[in-house]
Amino acid sequence: MAKIKVLSKEITIQTQHEEDYISLTDIARYKDAERTDYIIQNWLRNRNTIEFLGIWEHLNNPDFNPIEFDGIKKKAGLNSFILTAKRWIEATNAIGLISRTGRYGGTYAHKDIAFEFASWVSIEFKLYLIKEFQRLKEEELKQLGWDIRRNLAKINYRIHTDAIKENLIPPQLTPKQVNLVYAMEADVLNMALFGMTAKDWRDKNPDRKGNIRDDADVSQLVCLSNLENLNALLIQENVPQAERLRKLNHIAIHQMKLLANAPGIKQLEGKQHGEAHVIAGDKLSRKEYSKENE
């Protein structure tokens, strides 16, 4: 459940069947806070509204009852005609409207229908509603991108650490020495992708929180996840560290060029990228790193 503020009115949004449903009850409060049910019923008894709802259900609901819909449409316009959201749902098996009781009760409608209702209530309110709704969706997309960024690098983490444990850590090492081995292998990946070790990054960014991987963008984290898997395979094949670094760096450059223009990556990041953002270590730095850790 989410809430947005539209012209000082709080509007509730709920998810139903992976679709957004907006509270018509909250929208109606903009017109009359004391008679929201009456306002919704007035809108529902309108012939144009019924035709709109019927077309929407035909397009989106395979279980919609067209016979009951025709009966309701014929009565629309009569002085005695009354239609509630509950009656509409029960009679036609409609899914565009939801009628609930209880703490979070009220009438909710699929966003397509809610925008139509908001237009009937107030054109100004509808435009502000759409604006705030879009802002909410943009924030949700950013949050999705952040969650993926935090989790992508963990996808192959177990594969990578198990390969290190089984192939690079002798049983006589102390816990401190074991941690050092893990850190060294993590820096192999850091060097291959970012061109620097975790310590190098901390030295260059003393005021930044987190670590070098927290600072990575989505493209880099996708590539990092792939490199973890590849490095695990190379470790199992007993490839020397210097050779693994060279191979991984070559793969990182190639993958980053591909990922930079991938539409799915751009969508996750919520922005467009002009070119690959990859900082790969040069040959001298790779040799120096290997010598320091031999």
Please tell me the overall pLDDT. Answer: 81
Amount of beta strand? 5-15%
Order of helices and strands: EEEHHHHHEEHHHHHHHHH
The residue ranges in which pLDDT falls below 50 over 5 or more consecutive positions are 271-294
Taking all Cα atoms into account, the compactness measure Rg is 29 Å
Strand runs, count:
5
What global shape is seen?
elongated
Oligomer: single chain
Strand order of the largest sheet: 1-2-3-5-4
Question: What percentage of residues falls in helices of 4 or more residues?
Answer: 55-70%
Annotation field: number of helices: 14
Major sheet size, sense and barrel closure: 5 strands, antiparallel
The helix/strand class is alpha+beta
End-to-end Cα distance, whole Å, is 55 Å
How many domains in all? Answer: 2
Short description:
Helix content is 61%, strand content 9%. With 294 residues, it is an alpha+beta fold.
Features:
5-stranded antiparallel sheet; 9% strand; alpha+beta
Q: How is this structure best described in words?
A:
The protein is an alpha+beta fold and 294 residues long. The protein has 2 domains: 2-140, no CATH class; 153-292, no CATH class. It is 61% helix and 9% strand. The protein is built from 14 helices and 5 strands. The protein has helices at residues 24-28, 36-44, 47-60, 66-75, 85-92, 111-121, 123-152, 157-167, 175-194, 198-204, 218-236, 241-259, 263-269, 283-292, and strands at residues 2-6, 9-16, 19-23, 97-100, 106-110. It has a 5-stranded antiparallel β-sheet with strand order 1-2-3-5-4. Helix 11 (218-236) packs antiparallel against helix 12 and helix 12 crosses helix 14. The chain is elongated. The two termini are 55 Å apart. 29% of the residues are buried. Residues 271-294 have low confidence and may be disordered.
